[in-house]
Specification:
mainly alpha; single chain; globular; 229 residues; two-stranded antiparallel sheet; binds zinc ion
Length: 229
């Protein structure tokens, strides 16, 4: 590869077949966050590093994300039976990626994680990232599908620390709001706001989000009734 201002090639050793390969990663100094959505989706000015988070081995098709933990010994045997042997093709996702390529890489990583029985929290994070990629494509139907899947995984998830627990509680309420389950969103946000042990950070997120939602909802209802200008 010639020098590329946007990408560098990271050398990987495949956990499954142990072969070496190189895969593109976005250069951190080319990835500038300009804002963040209410479900923590970072919006980038130019390059989006999310597209390059999953490395896919071009030799055997094993897909790896740094958050995976079951990448050794007996888990590889299950992955071989449930994933590698079922794989119909060996995708080549080692160079510049489209959003569709990135979605493919996450779907493969999801299958590997599911085969290895990784924690629901990890599967929930993958589903949420797939929803974000569909949001970038304005594909609302698929976005909602993956937001629902993410919420389901988060409802079964446990975090290792207080910050993680609060993030799961907030995301559960936030995703409920996004998928139109308003009752569940209301319950979730009021639980956060009524819990004295929740940090100011998540209390503030929850209060702002719920107030903004109620404000927008009232405006919409007002427009329907011909009250607003
Ligand atoms: Zn491999």
């Amino acid at each position: 590869m010639k020098f590329n201002v946007n990408y560098y090639q990271k050398e990987m050793t495949c956990h499954f077949c142990k072969k070496l390969y190189k895969t593109y990663k976005a250069r951190p100094n080319r990835c500038k966050i300009i804002k963040e959505d209410t479900d923590f989706m970072p919006i980038y000015k130019d390059l989006n590093p999310l597209l390059y988070e999953v490395a896919v081995c071009p030799h055997c098709g094993y897909a790896y994300h740094h958050s995976m933990t079951r990448t050794y010994g007996p888990f590889l045997l299950i992955i071989e039976q449930l994933y590698i042997e079922e794989l119909q093709f060996k995708p080549d996702l080692c160079a510049e990626r489209t959003i569709d390529d990135a979605l493919m890489s996450y779907k493969l990583a999801y299958l590997v994680a599911k085969a290895a029985m990784e924690e629901p929290l990890l599967l929930g994070n993958f589903a949420l990232k797939m929803a974000w990629l569909y949001r970038l494509q304005n594909n609302t139907r698929q976005e909602l599908h993956y937001l629902k899947a993410a919420r389901e995984f988060y409802s079964q998830s446990f975090a290792k620390n207080k910050e993680g627990e609060e993030r799961i509680k907030y995301l559960h309420a936030e995703l409920s709001l996004r998928i139109g389950d308003i009752d569940e969103a209301r319950k979730g946000f009021s639980r956060i706001l009524g819990d004295r042990n929740i940090s100011n950070k998540y209390r503030k997120y929850a209060r702002n989000r719920w107030e903004d939602y109620r404000h927008d909802y009232k405006e919409q209802e007002g427009e329907k009734d011909g009250i607003s200008i």
